[in-house]
Amino acid sequence: MPKSYEFPVLSVLNLSVEAQGKKLVDKVTFDIHKGEIFALVGESGSGKSLTSLAIMRLLPQALQITEGSIELEDQNLFDLSEAQMQSMRGKKVAMIFQEPMTSLNPVMTVGAQVAEVLRVHLHLRSKAARSRVIELFEEVGIPEPEQRYNWYPHQLSGGQKQRVMIAMALACEPDLLIADEPTTALDVTIQAQVLQLLKKIREERKLSILFITHDMGVVHEMADTIAVMKQGTLVELAHKERFFKSPRHSYTQKLLADAIPKRHERVQTVSEPLLKLEQLKVHFPIKKGIFQRTVGYVKAVDGVDLEIPKGQTLALVGESGSGKSTIGQAILNLTRATDGDVIYFQKESVAGQNDAMVPVFLNSLSESAMRPMRKKVQVIFQDPFSALNPRMTISEIIREGMNSLKVGPKARDEQDQRIEQLLMQVGLLPEHMDRYPHEFSGGQRQRIGIARALAVEPELIICDEPTSALDVSVRAQVLQLLHDLQQEYGISYLFITHDLSIVPTIAHRVAVMQQGRIVEQGEIDQVMRQPQHEYTQALLASAPELVRKALDAA
């Protein structure tokens, strides 16, 4: 976009940040002009968020700015006292954080939280502040803003919480908005709405936006100028057209190549079913009143039929709240089905026949009867950090499942050998055995989760959004690993995701879920290229243009 401002709104010059003598940000220089969306991209640990925190002067005490300057409208932020800088935050420069739930106060209504910003910076009285907050809620597209003013964060959807954060950031009409991974955890339809909202506000207010992300589809959708960070340094800086047409640095080329996962050739073979869901229902009662009487039901899963063949992958896609994860929990018997059947087919010798497939109705099993089945059906969780016990070493985490489900060798030295093999299988090293989860990156922790699932030799793994929090290059590695393990061991996957770009990469078939029901399912090419249901069409239309082009070409 043409520069409409003689001098930059923000000018970062030779910014360097250190921790205990180690450079985390190294001589970073860039300018952001009025009305420009400037994307700062790179993997986790590249220094993107540290750069944004340095701009806000919110770096942890352990980190030091050793060099450089940051000027906001010709005012050097490093020359300001903390009191002066506090008056700048929110008024001149504001920030939207990655996770709105942890950024909002859970015991204050969302309206009161936004009103607080107006009272502190603009000294508005309560009535005027409330009126202005309702206007802001209308501007960012929050439905029924007068009612939502009195709601608490937990009562809002993920997209609505992010809109509250945007309203809070815009409350004092700042010149610069820093958006730190604002769409990472959002569904494609909500992501599209948030991105459209930010572009609309940019046009109306001539707002400058520093957009931090690792999602190249979002970058292609939003940015005017793009800077790529690697290990604390800027390795490429270019306008959008040149950036996507002819990236110069090898790291940028790799990021773009990994942005759309490569599709594996999948031979469609007729395979006997391993798992079947027949008219599965999971309804949660709504209780009200002093006697907690049931007044209705939330139909999280409402009559679902699915089938997962041996050695194949079924992708289950849909928005948050559609019932995808509840299906996974019902299969694992962590949530009891209200009605219907979860049927697992296992090999048994019956009436003289070897390896006859015998149906086991998982949802009718008691906890003790379900225990032997847990080594056949495992799970990889969305957040690898919260899924691993922080007080246990990696070897203890993997060994725990082997011992509790009585799988593999009993002798400790033989178990250690097995754990070493598993770690090497998932691309880690034997010396990682005695480390703790916090010593690993997100991608490495996800590999540990995969190793833990493999330790009990399962036939089916439920993958619940296992790549949603990962960088594009780490995501590509994890998807390749899952594919290789399927090829080697014939493992079946139920792959739950809202990322449409990875569906052709990982799955043989796809099922689309909306409000507890399957609205469309079939072969990948059939559903992704010729969707029949209007909801599937809306999901695909909401995907960033870069992803849509790749899906069409796949």
From TrEMBL:
PROSITE patterns: ABC_TRANSPORTER_1, ABC_TRANSPORTER_2
Keyword annotations from UniProtKB, A to Z: ATP-binding, Nucleotide-binding, Transport
Keyword field contains Calcium: no
GO BP: any one term: peptide transport
Keyword Nucleus: no
Gene3D superfamilies: P-loop containing nucleotide triphosphate hydrolases
Domain ABC transporter intervals: 10-256, 275-540
Signal peptide: none
GO MF terms, alphabetically ordered: ATP binding; ATP hydrolysis activity
Similarity comment: Belongs to the ABC transporter superfamily.
Name of this chain's protein: ABC transporter ATP-binding protein
Organism name: Thiomicrorhabdus xiamenensis
